[in-house]
Specification:
There is one protein chain. It is built from eight helices and no strands. The chain is mostly helical and 185 residues long. It has one domain.
Length: 185
């Protein structure tokens, strides 16, 4: 993917057919993120990676009011879109409240998303909302890595801090989330 082309297309409002030019440049990356979310799943889950990618992409390009700061900003906003789609899907499926079933959620591997585990998405979303109140940047790091599939350096660039800061934020946020999700709050 040519990072400069993505940034140019995002920032040039005079581009005719911006969506048609942008889609082939970002689709593979968005699809890779979605595939990672489903990598360990059995057949038969209700939200397919291609549908997730298409919904996320459509929500991104419909946001004309965003002053795109480049490719990483596009994928950061994409992570938020993916999170919202997964949470909405889980809520529609009347997923169980956080903690029931005591399932392990591996933030390193990505989400294992099936109808039986849709409560995990809601649990992570709820935990991230609480973490945002305590430490907003750490919550953003988790969102970008977990839902956006971004690498540490990309997150550091997006948030304008050092990679060491991001690594510390990631480590602390994982510990905080683990503790939160095991509590009865």
């Amino acid at each position: 993917m040519d990072k400069n082309n993505v940034t140019k297309i995002l920032n040039d409002s005079s581009f005719e057919n911006r969506d048609a030019r942008l889609y082939p440049l970002v689709y593979d990356n968005l699809h890779l993120i979605a595939e990672k979310l489903y990598a360990r799943e059995k057949k038969g889950h209700t939200l397919q990676p291609t549908l997730l990618v298409n919904e996320a992409y459509m929500s991104l390009v419909d946001q004309d009011h965003i002053d795109w700061k480049g490719r990483s900003h596009f994928f950061a906003v994409g992570a938020q879109a993916i999170r919202r789609i997964l949470v909405d899907h889980a809520r529609k499926k009347n997923a169980n409240k956080r903690g029931s079933g005591a399932q392990r959620i591996d933030l390193e591997e990505g989400i294992a998303f099936t109808p039986e585990k849709e409560g995990n998405v809601l649990a992570i979303d709820e935990a991230l909302e609480h973490l945002e109140n305590v430490h907003e940047r750490q919550a953003k790091v988790v969102e970008l890595k977990f839902f956006g599939g971004m690498k540490m350096q990309e997150i550091a660039d997006e948030l304008g801090v050092s990679i060491k800061t991001i690594e510390v934020d990631w480590k602390v946020a994982k510990a905080w989330l683990k503790k939160f999700m095991q509590s009865d709050i």
